[in-house]
Structures are given as structure tokens and as C-alpha cells.
Amino acid sequence: MPRVVLAVVLIAAVLAVPVAGRPALVAAQEATPEQGLGGLGLPELAITLTAAGYEGIPESLEAGRYLVTLAVAEDVGEFGGGIEFAQPVGVTVEEYLAALAPPPGEEDAAAAEGTPALAPDATPAEGEEGMGGPPAFFYESRFAGGTSAGPGQSAQVVLDLTSGEWVASSGGDPDQAQEPITFEVTGEMPAELPEPESGATVTMGEYVIGVTEGELAAGSQVVEVENRGAQPHFIVWFEGPDGLTEDEVAAVLEADLTGTPAAVDFNPDEDLIPVFFTATQSPGTSIWVPVDLASGTYGLACFFPDIADGLPHANKGMYAVVEVGE
Ligand SMILES: [Cu+2]
Question: Which of the two ends of the chain, N or C, has the fewest CB atoms closer than 10 A to its terminal CB?
């Protein structure tokens, strides 16, 4: 398996962007059912993530729109952890799992390399830039989304699980050694799927990301994240210094790509703080997540590797700066 595949999977994870010296996932989601996701009568999937593994995923589920609650145990580690739901297409589950597993030694190497400001893992491995992008199955597989939380915290997400074989995993996060869980989803999707109310819709596409309905506000709210594009996308939400501009984000992204210092008047390693992550979603999918935002300046960026050249989507312009007011 080419090394770039690992890079792809790693960044598809970014579950708890493992950045030394930066706060882990800030308590971005302390969702409670009162915020609107609990009253829809959706089937629920309560999953616990401990250092030992994922618990609470049955071997077989009915197709449907699920309210997933992920409780992350304290023993998971300082960066917490997450879950991503993927249905391999074009490869067997075994091949997909093999692509998720880091080759021996890779884990330590990745940890030792240090982490540039935004999403370094999305950079194609040296010497592989010319290979024309990651393998096709990565773009054909069905990514339903997912969520993450810090140690001792929990997070919720509403997502759709359609009929077929699924893999629940960290998406290959090297900080998460837990074994992926495979499970089967049977039956047809219900014709009527309740749609959670949301305060804002964030839309992803090539190569744009933005709030297309409502607005992000300070405090607790449900946000719909939809992929209207042709490739898989995910979002790293980060808080930046007040007044952060898109030009500054562009400068940091370019610097990450080239390995040079960014010409910005803040320290990207300390001042761009990942606060939230929503896992990879395939075209046509929506998820609903409760988020709790402080007022401030946020950046949203996708680091999924592009189908054409493997470059992170953020480096093709897929980022946005959003002001969240009081
Ligand atoms: Cu993307």
C-alpha cells in the first residue's frame, strides 16, 4: 500500500489533531438532549471509547438515521479520541482495514516528526507527489461522518447508516491504537427521516466551505454540515486570534505545505487552536452536530487530499474564516 494512503487516512481522522503544546479539543461539545437532537425519536447508538477499544457497537444494525453519542473515557489520553463511520466501496473490508493500519514503525516516526500548524499529514509523502492522488476507493467509499471529544467528555452526531458493511474507527489516527470495529447494517433506509433543527448550515464543496444558512452564534447550537461537492470532505474547526483573516490562513497553509515559516504576526503553532472536528463525509451526506462556541474568530478548513493530486483541499482554497459574535 503506498504510503500516501496512510497519509490520506490519517488526515481523514484528524480526530484530535495531535499537536504538542496546544490545547487538545476544547470542550466544543457538551451536548445535551435538550438541544434538539434527542427529541426526534431517532434510534440511538451509545458508544464508549476507552484505551482498550470501542464499546457499544452491535454486530448488526438496521439502516437508519442514528443519534450517536460518543463518550470518551479519561484513559484515552490527553487528546481524547473520535469515531469515523465508513463503508468501504471498491475494496474489501479487510483491504480497507489494512489501509487504516500504520505500517510497523510508522507510528513512532509520525509522532517524532512534529506537527506543523494546520494539517501536515495531508502533504503527500516525499517523492510521491507525481502519483496522481490517492487510490480510487478512497473517493468511492461511503463516509457517513463522525465526531470526537476530549478525555472525559462526550459528543453527539446525527448521521445516516445505510445498508452494507461498515467500519467504525479512529480513521487511522496514530494517537489512537484502538482496533476498528466492523459491523453490518441491514434493511432499507426508512422513507421518512426526521431532520434535526439547526441554527446554521455549513456547506462543503470543491473548494469552498462556508455557512450557507443561518449563522454560527456564541453558545450551544446544532449545526448541519453537508457535502454538496463531488469529493469527500471534512472540517477541522479552529479558533484563531481575533481578526484572523483568510489571507493569513492562506499564508499558514502555504507555509505548512512548503515547510517554511508563515509571514503572519501570530504564532500559528500556538494561536490556531483546533476546537472541533467533524469526520469525513461523502458527497450528498449531511450530519448534525451540537457545538458550543465562545465568541471569537474561527477558521474552518478541509484537509482531505484531492483526487487529482493528493494536495489537501485547504491548499486549493477550501477554508473560511467565520466571526462568531456575542
Ligand atoms: Cu475537502
Answer: C
